[in-house]
Specification:
The chain has helices at residues 2-14, 19-26, 30-37, 48-55, 59-63, 74-92, 98-110, 149-157, 160-170, 179-186, 190-202, 227-246, and strands at residues 115-120, 124-129, 133-138, 176-177, 206-212, 217-223, 251-255. With 256 residues, it is of the alpha+beta class. The longest helix is centred in the C-terminal third of the chain and has 20 residues, at 227-246.
């Protein structure tokens, strides 16, 4: 399609890239980029998300289409869940009357650092903070702080540039990538980018495929179908690590 070729050329120039520079980031030859831009050939469909992420646009925009809003209301489900959780905690704390419940919710709303929760050593804990959200953790019978599987995750999250990559993935700014495109985005060496991608592949956040373009092959990494679940868990780990390290105890009510 001629429009895609024209858009690649336009976006490349707008980002101050030569055909050689774009080719190096993707992992193809400059000749391939030239053929795309003149519409002699088209980039493989698996490379379109990579190109879109490099240029900071959507794949639909490269086709000239506008993404429509599906109108789903996940926010309503989230709000109702929080209300149910706060009803449970507030009821246990003696916030029974409508006025007491109102004060309880207003206090939590006005101060995002205020915390409330219940800990039962036999069952687990329910924790709520406006800044962090809510967590319900059942008590682990064994293996707490003993699993070797946590070490790699914690070590990787200690790397500032890796956290930046995870944040971009969570915010859906970067859905498909090559080693070169990650290295450019993070301003790091390709060996470092390769290490980051390997960790995300090992954790099942990314999956990879090799595109055979005839004279050359390109490995493309993209988000796994269930990646959002694990990316959210990484966000939780980061948020609560920050809570432990810098935040003072500031409770509206707490039991346990």
């Amino acid at each position: 399609m001629k429009q895609i070729g024209e858009n690649i050329a336009k976006l490349r120039r707008a980002n101050g890239m030569t055909q050689e520079q774009l080719a190096e980031i993707i992992g193809v030859s400059a000749q391939s980029v030239s053929k795309w831009e003149t519409s002699t050939t088209m980039p493989d469909i698996m490379l379109l998300p990579v190109l879109a992420d490099i240029f900071g646009v959507t794949v639909d925009a490269m086709y000239g289409r506008i993404k429509t809003d599906e109108g789903k209301r996940a926010e309503d489900v989230f709000s109702e869940t929080i209300e149910t959780l706060l009803d449970g905690i507030g009821g246990f704390m003696g916030q029974h009357s409508a006025e007491e419940k109102r004060k309880y919710r207003e206090a939590l709303l006005e101060d995002p650092h205020l915390k409330t929760g219940i800990m039962n050593c036999g069952e687990g804990a329910v924790f709520y903070c406006g800044e962090l959200g809510a967590a319900l953790l059942k008590k682990q019978k064994d293996g707490v702080f003993a699993s070797e599987g946590t070490c790699n995750v914690l070590d990787m999250l200690g790397d500032e540039k890796f956290r930046l990559l995870v944040r971009h993935l969570f915010e859906e700014k970067y859905n498909s990538m090559t080693i070169g495109s990650v290295a450019k985005m993070l301003s790091c060496e390709t060996d470092i980018a390769k290490e980051y991608l390997k960790a995300l592949l090992d954790w099942g956040i990314l999956e990879s495929s090799v595109l055979d373009l005839g004279e050359e092959k390109v490995t493309v990494h993209k988000l796994n179908h269930f990646a959002r679940n694990k990316l959210f868990m990484l966000q939780v780990v980061d948020a609560y690590a920050r809570e432990i390290s810098v935040t003072k105890n500031h409770m509206y009510c707490w039991a346990g």
